[in-house]
Amino acid sequence: MTEPVLVLDRVGKRFRRGRARSLRERFTRPTAAPRWVQVLDDVSLSVRPGQVVGVVGRNGGGKSTLLRIASGLTTPTSGTVRRRAAVSGLLTLNASASGELSGADNAVTAAVLAGLSPAEARRRLPDIRDFAELNDATLHEPLRTYSDGMKLRLAFAAVAVTRPDLLLIDEVIAVGDLSFQEKCLTHVEGLRDRGSAVLVVSHVMSQLRRLATDAVWLRSGRVHARGTAAEVMDAYERSMDERAGPPVPLASGGYRKGTGQVLITSITCTGTQDTGPGTTALGGGLSVAVEYRRQVPADSAHFGVSLRRAGTDTALLDLTTDGSGAGAVPLHDDGRVVLTVDRLDLEPGTYWVDAGIYATDWEVPFDYCWDATQVRVLGVPSHGPVQPPHRWAVG
């Protein structure tokens, strides 16, 4: 068996709370015993070449801290971390980013942090630009002028083109339109198949089921379960289902389940090219409006939308506010959240739309509706699940 690229052995991490923020505060406020918070406790895992280990668990469970320790950006309080002497890529929206620097300068910095020399990083800029689907003018504009989606695409491209022996991914594969997400997922699959080791944190179960060979479930900073990806994902989703209660039928023929603290009152699909309600054109965009009503006090929540081809269980689109960089959504007594996909690129046909509202720790859904409504993509069917922009050349 090949040697692991990364080994975490009984790793723990704690942070001090209540530290004085200034000299004045340190010497004038009453002395209090320091308060420590244990974020990780006795966590062990390893990642071998060609292995993708997914990490799941509620927000605040230590997943991002685990990645920072694995990358060397944070040192553990206890335990040991061993890495093989090879390139390590850390993929996260905020790592090393500066809004005043150009996209090109930020991309070079990210590629250098991922293991390339400055000269090699500069040489790879055209590859980064092409992968991120940016033009030269945009690449040299300040990063602060980029949309969140553009920042995420650039961050992914800057690290992905280095082809690291170890790739660390923190919640950023749900970026851009459907065709770009597919490109990202295919790229990670290619890295895995060529022998790269990957450690990935995500709340998008469909992506983890596709990419991961193995998984670890963190609960309150400790390893609650480990095993094959299918085993751990099944156990994690069963736990969420048990807390959400039994399903309730919908008028559409679908079902809903959740704690009921926040309820979805309507889901409306609208194409961006005036094709009529519940439809969109091939290559057109789609807006999904989720209206809700807060039943009991809840400050914020994550929203998610997925699309499945009618008659199948495979999610072809699975997006969340958290995974897309928008973060938790502040809640009102009545509100509306709209997801807009600029290019859907799905094959013509009928698709079921599922939508959910989740607690910010992702431990349980407030309300999740599946087979709630349908959207129809207009056009001539083909033989594949997606129809991205393309062209043929002869000669």
Tell me what the structure shows.
By secondary structure, the chain is α+β, with helices and mostly antiparallel strands. It folds into two domains: 6-239, P-loop containing nucleotide triphosphate hydrolases (Rossmann fold, 3-Layer(aba) Sandwich); 248-378, abc- transporter (atp binding component) like domain (Coagulation Factor XIII, Chain A, domain 1, Distorted Sandwich), CATH 2.70.50.60. The chain contains ten helices and 20 strands. The longest helix has 16 residues, at 178-193. The radius of gyration is 22 Å and the shape is globular. The protein starts with 5 loop residues before the first strand and ends in a 17-residue tail after the last strand. The mean pLDDT is 85.
What's the short version?
The protein is α+β, with helices and mostly antiparallel strands and 395 residues long. It is built from ten helices and 20 strands.
pLDDT < 50 stretches:
none
Strand % is 35-45%
Structural class: alpha+beta
Count of discrete alpha- or pi-helical segments spanning 4 or more residues: 10
What is the terminal separation in angstroms?
46 Å
Number of domain units: 2
The H/E string reads EHEEHEEHHHHHEHEHEEHEEEEEEEEEEE
Instruction: Give me the CATH superfamily of the largest domain.
Output: P-loop containing nucleotide triphosphate hydrolases
CATH topology of the largest domain: Rossmann fold
CATH class of the largest domain reads Alpha Beta
The helix fraction, in percent, is 10-25%
* Rg, alpha carbons: 22 Å
Q: Can you tell me the overall shape?
A: globular
- CATH architecture grouping of the largest domain: 3-Layer(aba) Sandwich
Mean pLDDT: 85
Let me know the largest β-sheet: 8 strands, mixed
Q: What is the strand tally?
A: 20
